């Protein structure tokens, strides 16, 4: 009786072991299938969602509002959070379009493909990065070298670059932001941000901080510029250049960049319909009205 009971227990444990082994082997495949199923369901839906760059957010909100005015039976939901957040949401099958102010990274592409997602890039507009200071600050222009010095910590007082004897308070976006990534690559040229830089989760917070602090400096998308802060001219080696539409589109302004949509494969259904609207003459004119720069200008 005891031997039979032992045999039964051993057999039961063996069966459970096979079950758990099978579950472990299929976990990754289930994750891929789940992402594909969510993506497939979205293709036929009359609702789509976009998530990502705070820089792209005002543009996409305006496009979505106008699109839904023309198509009242269709829904486009838009949220921010940063380019990295949007790309991750696309990879996880949570959104139809990731919005980004930077190119997708190689490691993100690899991770996406490992999860059955094929990111496809769409350039929808152009933007410039404006360096902002408090309106009380007498500094009106910086070279890219001076700007790099401010953010890597080599320049710590405004008097070192033609301003008053005041400590510089450097404000930055956080690392989930495509603007952060772009600024680090184009301005810092591989340097790390100064350790005392104040990181903020959203562009609006940076504007608020700079507007209230005469010692502060920050960087934002040009479309966010308002009278509460002062945008600086930048000299990339060819003289002082203001962040005007003409200079950004021509590339004369040193911190100009494209803005992106990313989809899982070539878009179809409502996703394609919305992207086609953004790329249409009406959609591109709307980009100009919001304060960005159309690709066909």
From TrEMBL:
PROSITE patterns tied to this protein: PROKAR_LIPOPROTEIN
Question: PBP domain spans which residues?
Answer: 43-281
Q: Which organism is it from?
A: Methanosarcina thermophila
Matching PANTHER family: PERIPLASMIC PHOSPHATE BINDING COMPONENT OF PHOSPHATE ABC TRANSPORTER (PTHR30570), PHOSPHATE-BINDING PROTEIN PSTS (PTHR30570:SF1)
Q: Could you tell me which InterPro entries the record lists for this protein?
A: PBP_domain (IPR024370), Phos-bd (IPR011862), Phosphate_ABC_transporter (IPR050811)
Instruction: Kindly provide the name given to this protein in its UniProt entry.
Output: Phosphate ABC transporter substrate-binding protein, PhoT family
The lineage's top-level taxon is Archaea
Composition bias of kind Basic and acidic residues appears in 29-45
Q: Where is this region: Disordered?
A: 27-47
User: GO molecular function terms here?
Assistant: phosphate ion binding
- Enumerate the UniProt keywords alphabetically: Signal, Transport
Pfam families from the UniProt entry: PBP_like_2 (PF12849)
């Amino acid at each position: 009786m005891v031997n039979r009971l032992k045999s039964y227990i051993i057999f039961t444990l063996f069966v459970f072991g096979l079950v758990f082994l099978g579950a472990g082997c299929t976990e990754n495949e289930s994750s891929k299938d789940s992402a594909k199923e969510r993506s497939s369901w979205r293709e036929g839906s009359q609702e789509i969602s976009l998530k990502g760059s705070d820089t792209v957010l005002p543009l996409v909100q305006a496009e979505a509002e106008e699109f839904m005015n023309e198509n009242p039976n269709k829904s486009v939901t838009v949220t921010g959070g940063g380019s990295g957040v949007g790309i991750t949401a696309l990879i996880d099958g949570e959104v139809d379009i990731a919005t980004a102010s930077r190119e997708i990274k190689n490691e993100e592409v690899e991770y996406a493909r490992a999860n059955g997602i094929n990111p496809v890039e769409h350039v929808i507009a152009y933007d410039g990065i404006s360096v902002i200071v408090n309106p009380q600050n007498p500094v009106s222009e910086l070279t890219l070298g001076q700007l790099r010095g401010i953010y890597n910590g080599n320049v710590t007082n405004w008097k070192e670059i033609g301003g008053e004897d005041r400590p510089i308070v450097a404000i930055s976006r956080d690392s989930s932001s495509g603007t952060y990534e772009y600024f680090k690559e184009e301005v810092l040229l591989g340097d790390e941000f100064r350790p005392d830089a104040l990181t903020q989760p959203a562009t609006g917070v940076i504007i608020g901080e700079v507007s209230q602090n005469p010692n502060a400096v920050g960087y934002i998308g040009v479309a966010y510029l308002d009278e509460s802060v002062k945008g600086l001219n930048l000299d990339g080696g060819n003289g002082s250049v203001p962040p005007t539409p003409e200079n950004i589109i021509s590339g004369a302004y040193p911190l100009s960049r494209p803005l992106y949509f990313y989809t899982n494969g070539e878009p179809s259904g409502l996703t394609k319909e919305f992207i086609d609207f953004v790329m249409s003459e009406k959609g591109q004119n709307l980009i100009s009205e919001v304060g960005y720069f159309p690709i066909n200008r």
